[in-house]
Recover the amino acids of this structure.
């Protein structure tokens, strides 16, 4: 019989959690400083999620440069690790197989996976860390694992049937491929749970799984960070994992968006082996107010809401979120900006929309020209009138 | 700095090893009896490799039947395990990730792999246990692992280059594929060792690796049993792993061949989690006399010498090694038999050659007809005149 919660961390009061963070976060900052990072910062002052905003954001592109200078991990790993993984870039991730190192155990527990389960792990173990992440999580909850990887669907169906696999772990869509193949083969599988990640889980697909007796929950994680947020049986948003601190910021900046607005997810891990502070995931989401009805008290986010990297090309020049941020920075009265790219008379057109309290248009044109190296129309709108969808570059061109 | 030997087990005297076996083997027999196997056997009497020949051989086909009756492992596993693997058949194998559970650590150590190494593990982790076997062995010697699997060769080369992988683990041939791709890509890799298994390592290939500065050693293992025998730097045969007992028998029987003759490898593991006793590997090899020059004292075998399963079809009927064994059993004066199949005038022809001390031909024809259900010519030869190559069925037909 599974207990309701994975541990006491999940049901802490806001104050208890804040107090715990005030103790462990300065230590983690020191961990990063011991590796040469965050020079000149008083680690004791970084004692809350709010205090993190004083610190620089670590982007994937910077991590990659650090790794190239100091392979394989840019000098960001403390002590020994067991695994080296490779993700597209290429970028390299360290891995350890100590207890729930990747933090997927909490998610699996929330889905009811435990000692009596056989987890068919359909994430790849090759180069990418996804397979080993779910392997590590399944071990943390005492489940038995059928390491299956991707492909070889007919063999997978036979294995699921023969061993009586009770849990599917993999991308949301591949379960459907397995179920269709099992129908073809006339084999009734015994999955009762599915733990999915790595892609959008469409509600209709989740319902079709439920109709076959499979309770499907999703989590959000990345190759660098492991599990970041997860659904519980209430399916009322994704609860932030207790081993990470999560911020949502305007893409291209380190500035938190207003409560409920869409922005880029920054994550600070409390894992002392690999201290990543304010790591920019490139993924978009938004906080949900209140708490999950399941009783877990940590903050929640909506699911994955697209990629933050809105970099695009206009008239042959790259337009990047960082440039939009620079434009806002240059003018104190500008609170927010949005570049809208479209196609007019078979030619690229750029409109820069600014939320402004006062001042003239002329200097914005110059700034736009200097920063973007292309001409753009400037539109001034009142404060709070730009859409709150996390986009700083909106591309209206059709690529069909 | 690596010490020469993995542990004290490798350099035991013959008497020390026999004494140790006399203690652990009866316990392992009891382990199997606790699962319902080997009923009526006095486990205390099974105290040496020689004593094993009183016990029945366990064939893969029987294991498969046991698994189908009692999935997934036929009731042969004691306690809890972490992994379930699937091999062609399908047949299922249990796995644990406790220290050197699959016993590949000893092989890796003999190849000089240790804490300072990065092992690129090019065995698949998906369904088959091969990847996890070498993973487990690499952890046992403290190496860091790049789980790479098969395929994605360009990404593998990039990873090997970026992280400075020092050891290749995989099939003998795939290393060549990686090296060719690295030349194409203009990347110089830093492999200095290669630990290979799962296929024949041709001497010319080993030499070509050595010419590139890569010292390549091979081991022999199976999905059910893990590591069985391994080469040391002396490359003078494969030394039997200390956690298994190895017999070489006439295919289709449990009768040991004479010293130096080719036969089928039977393995008894001393692993109490999964007690396999006299498991028929289906692989052929032969003992080598004496000991390796490296100082390891355990018995040695030649490399893999083909498959023991010589089952073939003659005139539409299966002819199996077990039938040849039955023929020998039926006639006390027959010490050995060999079925030679060929093609005469566009038709299958079977000659049964028997090593006989006395007696007439007539009754052999009847036995042959009764046992094989087809007619065959019988040739009687003097004792010790049949070839000692391990074949009981020799198929001379050309399938080109």
């Amino acid at each position: 019989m599974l207990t309701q919660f994975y541990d006491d961390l999940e049901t802490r009061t806001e104050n208890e959690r804040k107090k715990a963070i005030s103790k462990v976060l300065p230590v983690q900052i020191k961990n990063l400083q011991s590796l040469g990072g965050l020079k000149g910062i008083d680690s004791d002052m970084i004692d809350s999620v709010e205090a993190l905003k004083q610190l620089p954001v670590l982007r994937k592109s910077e991590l990659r440069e650090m790794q190239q200078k100091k392979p394989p991990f840019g000098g960001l790993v403390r002590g020994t690790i067991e695994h080296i993984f490779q993700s597209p870039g290429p970028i390299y991730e360290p891995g350890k197989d100590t207890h729930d190192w990747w933090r997927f155990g909490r998610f699996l527990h929330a889905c009811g996976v435990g000692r009596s389960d056989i987890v068919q792990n359909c994430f790849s173990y090759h180069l990418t860390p996804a397979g080993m992440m779910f392997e590590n999580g399944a071990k943390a909850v005492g489940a038995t694992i059928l390491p299956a990887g991707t492909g070889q669907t007919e063999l997978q169906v036979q294995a699921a049937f023969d061993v009586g696999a009770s849990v599917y772990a993999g991308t949301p869509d591949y379960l459907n491929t397995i179920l269709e193949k099992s129908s073809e083969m006339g084999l009734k599988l015994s999955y009762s749970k599915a733990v999915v990640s790595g892609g959008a889980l469409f509600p209709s697909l989740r319902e079709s799984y439920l109709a076959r007796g499979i309770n499907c929950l999703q989590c959000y994680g990345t190759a660098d960070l492991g599990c970041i947020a997860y659904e519980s049986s209430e399916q009322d948003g994704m609860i932030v994992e207790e081993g990470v601190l999560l911020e949502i910021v305007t893409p291209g900046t380190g500035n938190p968006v207003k409560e409920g607005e869409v922005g880029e997810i920054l994550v600070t891990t409390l894992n002392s082996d690999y201290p990543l502070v304010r790591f920019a995931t490139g993924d978009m989401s938004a906080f949900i107010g209140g708490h999950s009805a399941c009783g877990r008290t940590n903050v929640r986010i909506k699911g994955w809401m697209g990629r933050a990297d809105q970099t695009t090309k206009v008239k042959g020049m790259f337009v990047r979120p960082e440039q939009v941020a620079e434009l806002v920075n240059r003018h104190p009265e500008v609170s927010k900006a949005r570049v809208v790219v479209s196609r007019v008379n078979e030619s690229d057109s750029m409109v820069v929309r600014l939320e402004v309290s006062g001042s003239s248009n002329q200097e914005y044109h110059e700034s736009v020209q200097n920063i973007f190296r292309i001409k753009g129309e400037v539109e001034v709108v009142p404060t709070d009138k730009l859409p709150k969808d996390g986009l700083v570059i909106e591309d209206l061109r059709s690529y069909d």
